[in-house]
Amino acid sequence: MQQSFRSVCVFCGASNGTNPAHRAAARDFGAALAVEGWRLVYGAGDIGLMGETARAAQAAGADTFGVIPRHLLDLEQGRQDLTRLVVTETMHERKKVMFVNSDAIVVLPGGAGSLDEFFEVLTWRQLGLHARPLFLLNTDGYWTPLLALIEHVIAEGFAAPGLRDFVQVADSVPALTEGLRRALG
Ligand code: AMP
User: Is 15's C-beta closer than 6 angstroms to any atom of ligand 1?
Assistant: First the structure.
């Protein structure tokens, strides 16, 4: 059955990082999800930017869908009070459940885990396996080195120029929200 609301998958750090702007942006985006009536799909943890986003989304009344592997329930402080919680057996299963339940993907600042998640969605798009919009929230230029790397890969002939078109970059939460509004119709 078709969902009557839109779901936004948020990949982001299990840490807060050193720049307080990232926590503030995560909180603002969590609240924006509720205002827009979008469901948050995320990694279910209560730590780092993940926790910030979800607490703000939940406090503002958003529907929250968390997906976490059993072995990370303690480490990432898996939340039990979400609208829906799915506990998976593996990391791969986690990413799959998050992906199939989403209409758009947003990557906030994060570490290796967030990069893994970003590149999986990007490479699946490159292979034509999906057409979901993919956004990077580039708060304070956090992802600018990643964007430079993608340009380098294209310039060196290891990817088609179209690769960059699969990534939408927003410098602020209002710009991200506006981009999602356009993308989700
Ligand atoms: P990080 O950006 O490194 O702080 O990680 C963000 C989130 O990604 C954490 O919840 C990690 O558990 C998760 N993560 C890391 N690697 C993977 C993976 N291969 N599949 C699914 N989730 C992952």
Answer: yes
Among 47, 49, 94, residue to substitute to test ligand 1 (most atoms within 8 Å of Cβ): 94
DSSP H/E element including 40: strand 39-42
How many Cα neighbours within 13 Å face the side chain of 150?
22
Please check whether residue 138 is in contact with residue 25, taking contact to mean a CB–CB distance below 8 angstroms.
no
Distance 111 CA to ligand 1 centre (A): 8
Q: Nearest 5°: CA angle at 41, between 16 and 81?
A: 80
State both tokens at 66: 């968390």
Cβ burial of 158 (10 Å; 0-12, 13-18, 19+) is exposed
**pLDDT tens, position by position, 91-108:** 999 999 999 999 999 999
Query: Whose Cα sits closest to atom 5 in ligand 1?
Result: 113
Residues 77 and 47: beta-carbon distance below 8 Å: yes
How large is the C-alpha radius of gyration of the chain? 15
Identify the structural domains of the chain with CATH numbers, from first to last.
7-184 (3.40.50.450)
Phi, psi of 42 (to 5 degrees): -155, -175
Q: In what order do the strands lie in the sheet with 84-88?
A: 84-88, 64-69, 39-42, 7-11, 104-107, 134-137, 168-170
What is the reported pTM?
A: 0.96
